[in-house]
Each structure stands twice: as structure tokens, then as C-alpha cells.
User: What shape does this take?
Amino acid sequence: MKWMLWMLAVLAGTVLIAALIGWMLPRDHTASRAAHFRQSPETIWAVITDVDTMPSWREGLKSVKHLPDRNGLPAHLEVTTSGEIPLEMVEMTPPRKLVSRVANENLPFGGTWTFEITPEGDGATLRITEQGWVSNPIFRFASRFVLGYTSNMETYLKSLGRKFGETAQVGA
Assistant: This one.
């Protein structure tokens, strides 16, 4: 019985330390990742803006549901392995720049993803920049030290590479 109390104390202490560190971390963050593909900017644009086919190639994305347009731009709901995330497009400049935003201020996280496609050599580079925020201090700790701010971007770029039959080399 004594060991169970010790285990509970250690667990509570760990959660408390994570919460304290999370409180000290900034709420907002910026992170970026990029990968080069042997595809034209137009091909990359066509794939990253075709939300209907995304579940067939994006790891962790179960389904997508269209939402009414917002400010004349598309919006959709992504059903992921982690839950539902409503997204709205904020800027669309084909085939160079796409900005999407989490369209629910009540989630414990939010922000934008900016997709920039730059022609280079035998194809194009796609850079994703996240301007994000995390409100819950424990989730903020996990986002920074356990999951990492760039893990979703890396997964996205690697999934896109597989879609093109390529192995994406993801870098900063």
C-alpha cells in the first residue's frame, strides 16, 4: 500500500512540475519545416488544396467535411486521430502561398499554417510555418518537450512525399 502512495506522489509531482514549466513557457510560438519535391509548384498546390483527397494520403487524417465558405474562401473540418479541427483558408495565392487558420478559439491550441511553394531546380520546395499558441500549461509543456512544435509539419511533409512517390527530406 505504501508503494502505491509513493507512486501517486511521484505522479502528482511530475504533473505539477510539468504544469509549472508550462506556465513559464510562452503561450505563442513560431516553427517552420520545409521539404523539396520533384514536382512543379502547380502540382504541389493542386494536392495541398484538394481537401477531398487528403484522407487518402495524410497520415492521421481520418476524414474531411466541407464547411460554409468564410470571407469568400473555403473552410473545412478535419477529423484526425486526435479529434476534430475546423480550418478556414485566410489567404490563397495559387500556386505560391496558402494560409490556413484553426477556426475555433475554444480549442486548447490554435494559430495559422502558412504554406509557401518556391520553384527550385528539378521541382519546388514547400515550407510550412506555424504561428501557433497553446493555452493549457500542461499541453504547452507536452507540445514543447514531448511532441515538439514541428512534429505535425514533419508528418505532413513526409505524407506528401509518399503521395508523390518520393522520400521527403524534411529540414528547418
